Backbone:
């Protein structure tokens, strides 16, 4: 199993419109962050997590034309508004893309993008949608799911397992306890939200995330969903061993 970080940025990306790099060095390409997303693969299965506004560019950069399934963590714009570009994946596959989401997320997507799932004006549907249950298998990848707090809503926390390896993905989370914490214990790699150093009401700040990492003890931790205050080199120099910032295009073989 391997994972590619397609995007490691917050909802506005880095730089923000206005060429706002904040504290990030614009000369370091690892600071150029598109909206957060990952691609999880084995030799026979490929799963895309979220369809943000940068999905087309992300899949082109990854040289990926097809996926076996898409999982949506929740319905926020930075995780869904590239959904129209699944139409080209549909054309490449020759059949609708399989989609999975928690029921409230699925209902929101079908309401906002009905033509994607039902077709319109003579155009066929390009995506199917099924329940993202607490445990499921897609191809040879086993997946466990838990609803994690994200301000006033929840996002789907994900654990992927294949070939004796485990990967956790916790984006858009601001609290962790109980079943959510157990989802992320004993991982080979944990990719986890660390928006910025200052407190945020719906995302984990850096100190909070480091505390979670200490609690669940993954063998490797990778920080994602970072804003323009989080310069790659500065942050990497401060992090404990086994913890690193993500960057767009980072690939990890588990």
Residues:
């Amino acid at each position: 199993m391997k994972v590619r970080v397609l995007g490691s940025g917050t909802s506005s990306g880095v730089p923000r419109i206005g060429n706002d790099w904040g504290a990030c060095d614009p000369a370091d390409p690892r600071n150029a962050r598109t909206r957060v997303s990952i691609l999880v693969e084995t030799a026979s299965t490929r799963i895309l997590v979220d369809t943000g506004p940068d999905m087309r560019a992300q899949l082109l950069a990854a040289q990926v034309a097809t996926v076996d399934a898409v999982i949506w963590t929740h319905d926020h714009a930075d995780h869904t508004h590239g959904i129209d570009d699944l139409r080209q994946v549909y054309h490449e596959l020759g059949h609708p893309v399989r989609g999975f989401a928690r029921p409230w997320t699925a209902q929101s997507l079908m309401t906002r993008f009905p033509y994607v799932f039902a077709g319109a004006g003579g155009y066929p549907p390009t995506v199917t949608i099924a329940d993202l249950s607490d445990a499921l298998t897609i191809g040879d990848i086993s997946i466990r799911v838990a609803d994690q707090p994200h301000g006033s809503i929840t996002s789907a926390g994900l654990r992927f397992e294949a070939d004796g390896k485990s990967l956790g993905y916790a984006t858009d989370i601001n609290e962790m306890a109980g079943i959510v914490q157990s989802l992320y214990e004993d991982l080979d790699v944990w990719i986890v939200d660390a928006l910025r150093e200052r407190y945020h009401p719906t995302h984990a700040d850096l100190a909070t995330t480091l505390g979670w990492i200490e609690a669940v003890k993954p063998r490797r931790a990778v920080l994602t969903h970072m804003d323009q205050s989080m310069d790659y080199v500065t942050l990497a120099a401060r992090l404990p061993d086994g913890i690193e910032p993500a960057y767009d295009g980072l690939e990890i073989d588990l």
User: Anything to note?
Assistant: Helices lie at 55-62, 77-80, 86-93, 103-112, 114-118, 178-183, 206-216, 232-238. The mean pLDDT is 98. The radius of gyration is 17 Å.
